Recover the amino acids of this structure.
């Protein structure tokens, strides 16, 4: 078992080795244990300063990262593009270098442009964690999704996971595909033709357009949100029609020959991709995902902070 | 490389038996005492101590667990070799209990310092004692002293005290290795 990550930044799951994923999960398990203690905090990062730079809206990811960093005793500064000099025309590197001049060791960044985290990691002297870059990757979401699946299913090798919905605009889908495949799981994507990238089968995933068939095949269904904010043109006639074709309700869930696990990265559009009853049923592990998110992010931040040398 | 055997399997058993009687002397029926094995290697000794206590006194209600103090270490960013995190397993209350830390070798004292901080996350014990199989007397970097000692060893920093346990596939043995 390796005891350190093979990467210096978490830009995407694509760059990780299987051993890195195992190390993150093993560390996250111990942080989950910490989060269930009367005192939910450890002093490991007491001399580390982390900047959370969110150039795009986020609620749970930003809160989850902030909580994870605070549970590790790091000093945290938050930045949101809406109230910053970015609006005044400052470039990304200038913004970040100004923040780093204040002696920040690590940057957690969400940005609307794919590749922004990689670009940053190559140009600034700090550890970079990608908290979502456009429709490219959202590595910590995929890690917490896999961690939550493993809690229910054990080893994911040979398990079948279907990702349903807006695959084209989803960074969660791409990161999940990489993450699941590195653990030996089989991945299928399901959705209307317009929301599935044309060459996605080249990633080694199966493509299915019928939801019932996909659900019969899988052990886990990850229901993605329709990202209306990223859709500049109409990809389907109406939300009502999408729900009729790709919305999961209790009737369909109960009609399946086995009990599958239902996941959702949030925020949920209740009554669109899944019904309220499905979101709240025993098979849904949506709140487990949120809880595990803090532990997994603690693990990622901790393991990258290990690589910061004192006085380096 | 030279190796000097400090304790063989039989001597380890005798030492553990003596340590258990010392514990019994101070903790009687262990009704308010919990045993904590320090991860990673103190856990093997803790397991043996608990089994021996059961054998000597039939204490089958004894609470014992394991504590990993990696997140509380003060050399987190100084180490060239990163530490793997191990399981902490404490599924009982610590508050107002008498806690006995168990570790195989006491060297600089830094792991125990981290353990003292880590146990605080679970509550405020009445007191904490330390039992070690080997006490390396002249290597301490912090004012930490064990309450129960299996054997005192005077070793220089280039020497390594190696503890092997039968549960890991070898016979129980403590040796001093000089590189």
């Amino acid at each position: 078992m390796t005891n350190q990550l093979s990467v210096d930044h978490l830009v995407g799951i694509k760059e990780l080795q299987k051993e890195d994923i195992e190390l993150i999960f093993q560390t996250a398990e111990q942080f989950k244990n910490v989060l269930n203690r009367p005192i939910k905090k450890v002093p490991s990062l007491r001399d580390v300063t982390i900047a959370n730079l969110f150039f795009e809206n986020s609620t749970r990811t930003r809160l989850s990262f902030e909580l994870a960093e605070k549970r590790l005793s790091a000093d945290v500064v938050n930045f949101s593009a809406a109230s910053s000099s970015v609006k005044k025309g400052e470039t990304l590197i200038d913004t970040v270098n100004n923040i780093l001049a204040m002696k920040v060791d690590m940057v957690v960044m969400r940005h609307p442009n794919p590749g922004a985290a990689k670009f940053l990691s190559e140009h600034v002297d700090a550890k970079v964690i990608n908290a979502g870059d456009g429709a490219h990757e959202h590595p910590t979401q995929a890690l917490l999704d896999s961690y939550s699946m493993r809690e229910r299913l054990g080893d994911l090798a040979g398990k079948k996971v279907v990702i349903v919905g807006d695959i084209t605009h989803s960074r969660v889908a791409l990161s999940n595909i990489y993450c699941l495949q590195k653990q030996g799981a089989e991945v299928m994507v399901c959705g209307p033709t317009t929301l599935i990238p044309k060459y996605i089968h080249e990633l080694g995933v199966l493509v299915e357009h019928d939801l019932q068939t996909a659900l019969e095949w899988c052990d886990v269904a990850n229901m993605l949100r329709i990202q209306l904010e990223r859709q500049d043109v109409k990809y389907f006639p109406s939300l009502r029609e999408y729900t009729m074709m790709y919305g999961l309700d209790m009737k369909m869930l109960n009609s399946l020959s086995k009990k599958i696990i239902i996941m959702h990265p949030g925020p949920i559009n209740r009554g669109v991709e899944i019904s309220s009853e499905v979101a709240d049923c025993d098979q849904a592990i949506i709140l487990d995902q949120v809880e595990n998110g803090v532990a997994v992010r603690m693990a990622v931040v901790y393991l990258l902070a290990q690589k910061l040398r004192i006085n380096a | 490389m030279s190796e000097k055997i400090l304790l063989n399997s039989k001597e380890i058993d005798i030492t553990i038996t003596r340590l258990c009687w010392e514990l019994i002397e101070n903790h009687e029926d262990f009704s308010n005492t919990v045993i904590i094995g320090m991860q990673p290697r103190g856990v093997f000794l803790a397991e043996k101590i608990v089994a021996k206590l059961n054998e000597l006194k039939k204490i089958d209600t004894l609470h014992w667990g394991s504590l990993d103090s990696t997140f509380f270490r003060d050399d987190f960013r100084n180490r060239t070799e990163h530490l793997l995190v191990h399981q902490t397993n404490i599924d009982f209350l610590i508050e107002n209990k008498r806690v006995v830390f168990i570790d195989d070798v006491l060297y600089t004292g830094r792991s125990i310092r981290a353990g003292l901080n880590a146990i605080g996350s679970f509550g405020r014990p009445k007191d904490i004692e330390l039992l070690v199989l080997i006490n390396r007397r002249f290597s301490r970097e912090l004012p930490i002293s064990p309450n129960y000692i299996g054997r005192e060893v005077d070793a220089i920093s280039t020497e390594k005290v190696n503890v092997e346990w039968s549960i890991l596939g070898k016979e129980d043995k403590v040796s001093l290795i000089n590189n």
The longest strand of chain A covers residues 127-133. The CA atoms of residues 117 and 148 of chain A lie 25 Å apart. The longest helix of chain A spans residues 286-305.
